[in-house]
Structure formats: C-alpha cells, structure tokens
Amino acid sequence: MRIAVISDIHGNATALRQVLKDIESCKADQVICLGDNIGYGPEPEAVVSMLRQMNIASVMGNHELVINNPGFLGWFNTAARLSLEKSIDAISPPNLDFLSRLPDFITAFGCRFVHGFPPDSPTNYMFEIYPAEMEKIMADMAEPVCFIGHTHDLALITYQDRSVNQSPLTGSKTVFLDSTLKYIINAGSVGQPRDGTGEAKYVLFDTEAYSLEVRRIPYDVNDTIKKIHAAGLPRQHALRLSWP
User: Fold this and answer.
1) 47: in domain
2) Residues 27, 2: contact at Cβ < 8 Å?
3) What whole-number distance in Å separates Cα of residue 22 and Cα of residue 162?
4) Order of strands across the sheet with 200-206?
5) Is residue 244 part of a domain?
6) How many domains in the chain?
7) Quick one: which of 78, 88, 95, 113 is 20 to 30 A from 101 by CA?
8) Mapping DSSP to helix (H, G, I), strand (E, B) and coil, where does residue 84 land?
9) How far apart are CA 101 and CA 89, in angstroms?
C-alpha cells in the first residue's frame, strides 16, 4: 500500500493540481490530507472541491476550526485572520459543511493522521512540545507512525529506547523506517512550504517496504502570486511563496 500524505494546501489550487498529477503518476493507492485546506491562498473553493471530487479524506486543521467557532479567529494574527475571513466568504455552503465535519484525527493503515500533534490536536505545534512531553506522547501512541502538518516544514521524529530524536527530511533519497520503532512524520506543505524552496511538498509512505519518500513538485508559483494579489489578500502571503 502506497499512501500519499498531503498537508497545508491553504487555498493554493495551482500547487494542488500539480501534486495530484504527481500522485497519480506514482500510482498511490490512497491519499490522506492533514488539514488547513483554506486560508492564505486565493482559491479555497477550488481546493475543497478537488478534495471532495477525488474522495480525499482530510482531518481538521486549525484554519478549519473557525468555521464552527468564529471566535477562534482571535487565535490568528491580523493577516492570517483577514485571509481566513475572505476564504470562508468564498466557499460554497456544501463545501463549508464538508469542512465543518472534518474529524480531529484519522487512524488507517496502521497509522495516525492529525494536523497539529498527536493524539488529536489541530492547534499544537511540534516545536511547542517539550522533550519530556513528546517522549510520553510517543510512548503512549497506539500506532507506530503518526503523520502531522501545521508547521509547513518537513521533519522526522524517532522514538527509540524511551528517547526522542528529531531530524529534517532533506534531499530526495528514500528513507527506510525501522518497524520496531515509533515515528512522527511532518509532511510539509503543498500550498505554502516554509523550508526555503518554492516547490510543493508531500510524502509517500509505502506500508510494505516501510519506506518514506519526500516528493518536491514544481508548479507555477507566479500564477498563485498573481491570484493572491487579485483576490486582495495580504501581500505577505505572496511573498512567502517567492523563495530565491
């Protein structure tokens, strides 16, 4: 079983289309999304429609939390709040209903999928978790592998001998995991990566080979930037896509 794990699309339909094409070329058996499908980007309606049309399961991201709890807007900075308000206004009622019903986590194929941090938080950032707390969370995890998003970066956290080791996922080589250990895998971001490159990112997990591959997908970044400006979204959301 080959599972494509995508995350943090953030209304970037141009990036998502290229990622979905790559997923198809890789012959992935299943696609799971880690949430934050909206906010920042210019085409939230198109993104959600693609997820629904392709029956891609998604968990609840912190940006989706606002749909059921408008008071949660205060959790965001001014620019993020503005873009999220515009996103919600641009989404059709059926797609808003879909987003409002997303689960906090999914368990499937022997893995856990959550936006922020296990076991089920859409809001906790990986870098906010103290080492001792992280060790306890990973020790208690029922599943050996958990996929997270939220930080827009790529990382591999390994739990071994009651200790935690964190390393970046860089390069393009396949990483083979140890079936006797536990892992948290940060899948990066499709729509707004923050690792210093402009490519869309996602990961492929092979449950039989027990291997992980980071996929880096070029797309027309300028197209998304133009659409951000045209939609009247904060300029900084476009600047974040303009890596050297």
Assistant:
1) yes
2) yes
3) 37
4) 57-58, 30-33, 2-6, 200-206, 211-217, 175-176
5) no
6) 1
7) 78
8) helix
9) 18
Q: What are the tokens at 162?
A: 């009651």
CB 1 within 8 Å of CB 211: no
Per-residue pLDDT of the chain (244 residues; tens, 9 = 90+): 999 999 999 999 999 999 999 999 999 999 999 999 999 999 999 999 999 999 999 999 999 999 999 999 999 999 999 999 999 999 999 999 999 999 999 999 999 999 999 999 999 999 999 999 999 999 999 999 999 999 999 999 999 998 999 988 876 678 999 999 999 999 999 999 988 788 999 999 999 999 999 999 999 999 999 999 999 999 999 999 976 5
User: Shortest CA distance to 225 belongs to which of 38, 9, 42?
Assistant: 42
CATH code for position 66: 3.60.21.10
Residue in the structure block whose two tokens are 């990622």: 19
Cα–Cα distance measured from residue 47 to residue 195, given in angstroms and rounded to the nearest whole number: 22
- How far apart are alpha carbons 73 and 114 in whole angstroms? 21
Q: What are phi and psi of 142, to 5 degrees?
A: -75, -30
Distance in angstroms between the alpha carbons of the first and the last residue of the chain: 36
pTM over 0.70: yes
SS3 label, residue 129: coil
DSSP state letter for 117: B
Cβ-contact 157, 195 below 8 angstroms: no
SS3 96: helix
Residue 203 near residue 193 (C-beta atoms within 8 A) = no
Q: Is 86 part of a structural domain of the chain?
A: yes
Could you give the angle at the alpha carbon of 224 between the alpha carbons of 216 and 231, nearest 5°?
150
Rounded to an integer, what distance in angstroms lies between the CA atom of residue 64 and that of residue 46? 15
